[in-house]
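for the writeup, i need someone to sanity check this before i put it in the appendix. the sequnce is what the collaborator sent (i think, or maybe the updated version? ugh). structure was predicted straight from it, no edits. if anything looks off just tell me and ill rerun, i have time this weekend
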Amino acid sequence: MAAKMREEADKLKLSGFLDGVTLNRTIPLRDQVYALVRKAIVIGKLEPGAPINEIEIANKLGISRTPVREAVKKVSDEGLIEVFAQHGTFVSAISRKQVEEAYIIRIALELESIRRAALVIEPSQIHDLEDIIHAQEVAVKRERYDEAIARDDDLHRYIAEVNGLSMLWKAVDVSKAQMDRCRLRTIPSPGAAQETIAQHRAILAALANRDQEGAMTALRDHLETSLRNTLAYLDTEPDSQAVPSDD
C-alpha cells in the first residue's frame, strides 16, 4: 500500500514539472528534454531519490522515447541522475565531493577568463555588466531567486565572452551541476544575495579600471564565499543517498 501511494506521488511530481510544456519541433527534442529535466532537478522540483521514468516523460510530452533517453543520459553524465540495477533511474543525492570539485574547476577557469577580460574590456561592455547586476538586484528584491541566479550566470558568462571564450563557460556550466542545486537553497539566506551583488559590483569596478589583479582577487573572493556558503548548507543536510527502497 505504501509503495502504491509513493508511486502515485511520484507520478504527480512528474506531471507537475511537465505540465503546460510545449516542445518546439524546430529545435532538437533531446536538448529541450535535457533542459527541462536538468532544471527540474536543479531547482528542486525533482528531489533526491525521485524516479526518472523515460516512458512516462515521453508519453507526457508526446514524443518517442529516443530523445528522452538521450537527454537522461546527458543529465546522468553531469552526476544528477543515477541508474541502479534492478531498481531503476533516480535523481542523485547532492554530492559534496562533486560540489568541491566543481568549484576547483570554476575558480581555475574563471580566473583565467577575468585575467584576460580586464585587459580588453570596453566601456560598452562595462555598461552591459552593470545592466546585468541591476537585473539581478531587482530579481532579489522581488524574491525571484531563480531569475537572480540566471542573471548571476549571465554575468560570469558575459565576462568569458568578452574574450570570445564561449567554450570556457560551457565547461564551467557543465561542471557546476551539483553546485547549482545548492544555490537556490542558499540564496534566500539573510544577506546572502546582497553579499553576492556587492561582490559582483567589486568585480565590475576592477574591470572598469582594467585592474587585472584586483579583478582576479575580487572574483576569487566571490567564488570562495560561495563555496563556504554551499558547504555550510550541506553540513546541515542529512547525509542520505538517493538509493531506492525495496519495500
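Residues 1-6, 239-247 have pLDDT under 50 and may be disordered. Residues 96-120 form the longest helix (25 residues).
thx in advance!!
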